[in-house]
Amino acid sequence: MTPLIESHQARSFYLNDQEFSQLYPDPIQQIDSLHWTPLAIAAETARYLVNGKICKILDIGSGVGKFCLAAAQFEPLSFFYGVEQRENLVHLSGLAKKKLGIENVEFIHKNFTQINLGDFDAFYFYNSFYENIPGAERIDDTLAYSLDLYHYYCRYLYIQLGHLPARTRLATYCSWGEEIPEEYVLVESQFHGLLKFWEKTT
């Protein structure tokens, strides 16, 4: 596939995670390794989810947009959407998109429960609910957090994933699997089991 990015300056951001983090302000760079998807994970995930097709892929809890912006470069014929409830992170995602000149990405400022998953072909989930676990490292303190909310989000996603058609693909990173219905089978795991690829059987 022909890369989307033509300028040398834009391509340099994809050399490694440290270079990519330069797209963002210092506070965002400082939590890169904890909260944002590594480029190697994004590359493998994009390959699996796209599977040689032209797809619409949703990142559930997209943060500053790193997964979408990386995956969109690796798979330029597909379109990547990120839904994020923090307006400031959606803003930073848009600024990074502009710097990179990426076009096959869109960021949505909503809670994921306001999104119709049926509008998408495949999904990426980097355990964006985990912040609600007591003692967890959080991106910031702008949201209300609770264990009840963690369980609510997991159950809501579980139900919504169950409504999707057979052959739907899902990738999870650092997930405990509570949000995955039994109709999804584990196809492959990488990076010491942290990255898992799933497919819905029925």
Walk me through this protein's architecture:
This protein is of the alpha/beta class and 202 residues long. The protein has one domain (8-200): 3-Layer(aba) Sandwich (Rossmann fold). The chain has helices spanning 8-12, 17-21, 26-30, 32-35, 39-50, 66-74, 87-100, 147-162; strands spanning 56-60, 79-84, 105-109, 122-125, 169-173, 184-190, 195-200. It has a seven-stranded mixed beta sheet, with helices on one face. Strand 4 (122-125), helix 8 and strand 5 (169-173) form a beta-alpha-beta unit. Helix 5 (39-50) packs across helix 6 (66-74). It starts with 7 loop residues before the first helix and ends with a strand. Mean pLDDT is 94; it is low at 1-5.
Q: Could you name the key traits of this structure?
A:
202 residues, alpha/beta, Rossmann fold, 7-stranded mixed beta sheet, 19% strand, globular, disordered N terminus
**CATH fold topology:** Rossmann fold
| CATH architecture title | 3-Layer(aba) Sandwich
CATH superfamily placement: Vaccinia Virus protein VP39
Compute the gyration radius: what is it?
A: 16 Å
Give the DSSP E fraction (strand runs of 2 or more residues). 15-25%
Q: CATH class, anyone? A: Alpha Beta
Rounded mean pLDDT is 94
Number of domains in the coordinates?
1
Order of strands, main sheet, comes to 3-2-1-4-5-7-6
Give a count of the beta strands, DSSP E runs of length 2 or more. 7
| Silhouette | globular
> What summary fits the major beta sheet?
7 strands, mixed
Low-confidence stretches: 1-5
The helix-strand sequence is: HHHHHEHEHEEHEEE
Structural class: alpha/beta
Number of helices: 8
The rounded distance between the terminal residues' Cα atoms is 32 Å
Helix proportion range: 25-40%
